[in-house]
Fold:
Amino acid sequence: MSASTVVKPPRNRKSSRAKQQARLAWWLVTPTILVISIVVIFPTLTSVYQSFFGAKGIDPATGFVNQTEPFVGFQNYINMFQGDSGTRFQTAFWNTTIFTETTVAVETLLGVTMALIMHKAMKGRGLVRAAILIPWAIPTAVSAILWRWIFDTNGIANALIGTQVIWAIGDWSAKLTVIIADSWKTAPFIGLLTLAGLQMIPEEVYEAAKIDGANAWKRFTHITMPLVKPALIIAVLFRMLDALRMFDLPYILIGARKSSVETLSMLVQDEASNLRYGSAAAYALVLFLYVFLLAFAFVKVMGAEIISGEGEKRRGVPISLIRRGYKRDSSLTDADATAEAYADGSSEQLITGGQER
Structure:
């Protein structure tokens, strides 16, 4: 036997306990995968298949009535960009985009304001919270009927402005009606999620900032907004996804087949109700793709730090290093560094603009 005997290391095998845990995990995940497959994947694949067929009717080539839906290939998608169908689709796409951008922006401003009011310690805070959350609790159909009465020709809106405006007839007046009604109803949703984020911020953080001489605006921009950003991003993302699928509010408030407020969801419903299932499936798939791309872009631009967990890696930067201009990576702003320094319990001084105060 040689002096230098090579000893092979033992193979890296999973223990029986690890295998049991892996098997249990698969058993627990399987029902969820099955439900997703039935509820999401199967209908999506069915819609893709359905979008390649046309509506029943007289075949222009033969003159006979089709008993089955004819195969038309990509014609339903081509029709989105030509003729009357293309004009209607582009109008619905434009309306959906306008409603999403406008309502989400307005609701974010109102929601953050509501959250700050509800978070403030004052008498009757419970009553104020209940009053702010009431619009969100009202069903959308009921809310649409209420606002339809308000914007009626003889409604409260015309009485307040002292003129007779037919809100549902005009193009931009109808859009403004939907934007006001939707913002009133769903701004409390953003406010509620933002309030949850505000309540997670320790009060000692604000007390330390006051001792260091930070005014209300600097406390808001350097502490409140950086620390409430994760909750606010989730609230805005959920609200944006909901606004892209807007249907019931404009449908009840203004009416069906109104070019001023018709959205992609309303267009899908109208095509399906008229037995044009192929074009309805094509519109639905385009809407699905639009929602997916916007959500993906929003998460990549606004929420990358939350998804990738970079925010957790930046925790624990000593305030002494922040004073010397230390940054763990280039995306760590002065506001983030200040807020995180307070969140870690370092309350020696308030750092604003990269300088000592």
About this structure: The longest strand covers residues 351-352. Residues 83-119 form the longest helix (37 residues).
